[in-house]
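To assess whether ligand presence alters the predicted conformation, the chain was also submitted together with zinc ion. Input:
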Amino acid sequence: MEKINEVVFIEGLGYDSNIYLVGDVIIDTGTGENANYVFSEILKSGISPEDISTIVNTHCHFDHTGGNSLFSADIMIHEEDAEPLEKGDSRATAAYMFGKSTEPVKITKKLQEGDKISGFEVIHTPGHTRGGICLFDGEILISGDTVFANGGIGRMDIGGSYDDMINSLEKLQKLHAEYLLPGHGPWTDNAQQHVTMSYQMARRF
Ligand SMILES: [Zn+2]
Ligand SMILES: [Zn+2]
């Protein structure tokens, strides 16, 4: 558990995505397979897992959404990634790749570009999946599986598209973010440099 300004970073264990907390909002929840670790990290940050009011999923994949069931909280996801969770579509969530299945859940709110959550704005960044989002507060970019540190980008063969990815990376470059908090791997400062590197890498494909 680490803090970057007001954001709590919980490093993903095993196949889990990284998990972020902003107040009582949790952003991505990992697979749900490492509940004891996740709960103890949340407690270390000073809040109780029962107090989490809202889950924001950066996209539908199982390594981010499998843990939604650990919390009794409102569930949000971009409207274009909602259906796989609502229908329990283990193929679209890629749960089958982990030898798991996705149970249907009720989505409380389907997010759109420009929605605001605890000071963060929703930025629709398709490419890794159709309904992938990033969250940005003017400084911190929580980037899901769109961009990773050191020029990484999310794979585009499980519900994504190369053209969408290029457009999304262009969009993220215009933000001039300071901190990059990705869905996997380390967080970093100098976010703009990392986003630019990812864009340049992607354009070479
Ligand atoms: Zn992921
Ligand atoms: Zn993913």
